[in-house]
Amino acid sequence: MLDSSIQNNVTHSPNTTTVQTVMGLDYGINKMGIALGNTLTQTATPLRQFAMKNGQPDWVALLALISEWQAQRVIVGLPLNMDGTDSELGNRAKKFARRLNHELKAAHIACPVTLADERLTSREAKRLAWEYGLIKHEHEPIDAIASAIMLGSWLRHGQGETLP
């Protein structure tokens, strides 16, 4: 479960007239996958890998990327255990999402941050990457693909929790 500081449930309707560009982040300690999508097509595309140092990004570069793509919402993948309980990485992802929310507000970037379940996205990303020949070695990064899978699921189902 998400902690009590993150209680605003967020849903969206694909029938809304406002189309939003949404950025998905697959948080990691050494790298983060980034994907882009929109609420009209409800699809997402892998964008890039983003370097992390012990779970911390280059905040200036990350905020610049969000601004450059004019994202109107950021979805941070929340790695939960299979039974839905918090994981160690999930706790770090929550902390990252709270900091991102703070950094966006401090930079006057109106872009809500939402946490969304990302269970099994890495496994599915690896399967798809092998199937389509996108990777040739087992240890090649698939984080941007995992981010696109997580973001696509959020775009279609709209489940997550928005930070205050």
UniProtKB/TrEMBL annotation:
Keyword check for Hydrolase: yes
Record's keyword terms, sorted: Cytoplasm, Hydrolase, Nuclease, Ribosome biogenesis
EC category name: hydrolase
GO biological processes: rRNA 5'-end processing
EC number per UniProt: 3.1.-.-
Record carries keyword Isomerase: no
YqgF/RNase H-like domain span: 20-125
Source superkingdom: Bacteria
GO cellular component terms attached to this protein's record: cytosol
Location(s) in or outside the cell: Cytoplasm
UniProt main location, coarse: cytoplasm
Gene Ontology molecular function terms on file: hydrolase activity, acting on ester bonds; nuclease activity
Role description: Could be a nuclease involved in processing of the 5'-end of pre-16S rRNA.
Family: Belongs to the YqgF HJR family.
NCBIfam families (alphabetical): RNAse_H_YqgF
Protein name stated in the entry: Putative pre-16S rRNA nuclease
Species this protein is from: Faucicola atlantae
